[in-house]
Amino acid sequence: MNATERLYEEDSYLKDCTAEVVASEVGLFRVNRTVLYAEGGGQPGDSGAVTLPDGQELAIVKSVKQPGNPNAVLHYLQDADTVLEVGSQVKLAVDWARRHRLMRMHSALHLLCAQVSAGVTGGSVGDGKGRIDFNIGADGLDKERINDGLNELVSRDLEVAARWITADELDENPDLVRTMEVQPPRSGGKVRLIEVQSADLQPCGGTHVKRTSEIGALVVGKIENKGKQNRRVNIRFAD
């Protein structure tokens, strides 16, 4: 079994699941299904815990895609000397407070894309803050306008939803891709889209809130010059 069923792709609000250990070595393991997001697309991997059949609970410090196999998720243990028993049934739980903050910020960055009509050259989802680099040059970025626009979209309580299209459909609609240097993941010939109602639509594998009101008030921080064309827009939660 080379792929991990990534339950968070269908429901970002799942906090735990049962799973079978399919591979393990010192300090890390892989299961057949998981609720813990694997690092990618600028979003950090989830932390959380795994409960063993005997009731012992071990901390998971990070989750990443397996090198050479992006469809498989590896979970790293805080106790680097532990090896889990292959075939055992375990329970996985995500650090929900941290995950929810990352979900809110990732969705906020999609709202930021809706405010800036330019290609994306980079981005990062942080715990309470985030940023996107736009290929826009010196003109076109008004901090106050962006700040007001973000919070208007939050206050409108817009739906945020995921759906899938085929890789061929993406190729027929290349304008859906905002990132200039990184192509979206194509899992089994499918591409996951995130749509913010009437505001933004683009490929994304990350976890998101269901409605923009859940994001909360936002503040635009520094707009930095990162080269002749690159402008970095930093945002954070107002709270």
Overview in brief:
The chain is an alpha+beta fold. The chain is built from three helices and 15 strands. The protein has two domains: 5-94, Elongation Factor Tu (Ef-tu), domain 3 (Beta Barrel); 99-237, Threonyl-trna Synthetase, Chain A, domain 2 (Threonyl-tRNA Synthetase, Chain A, domain 2, 2-Layer Sandwich), CATH 3.30.980.10.
Task: Characterise this structure.
This protein has 239 residues and is of the alpha+beta class. The chain folds into two domains: 5-94, Elongation Factor Tu (Ef-tu), domain 3, CATH 2.40.30.130; 99-237, Threonyl-tRNA Synthetase, Chain A, domain 2. Helices cover 16% and strands 40% of the residues. The protein contains three helices and 15 strands. The protein has helices at 96-115, 143-155, 167-172, and strands spanning 5-6, 16-25, 28-31, 33-34, 48-51, 57-66, 69-77, 89-94, 119-125, 129-135, 160-166, 190-196, 200-203, 218-225, 230-237. The strands form four sheets. It has a six-stranded antiparallel β-barrel. A four-stranded antiparallel sheet has the order 9-10-15-14, with helices on one face. It has a three-stranded antiparallel sheet with strand order 11-12-13. The chain starts with a strand and ends with a strand.
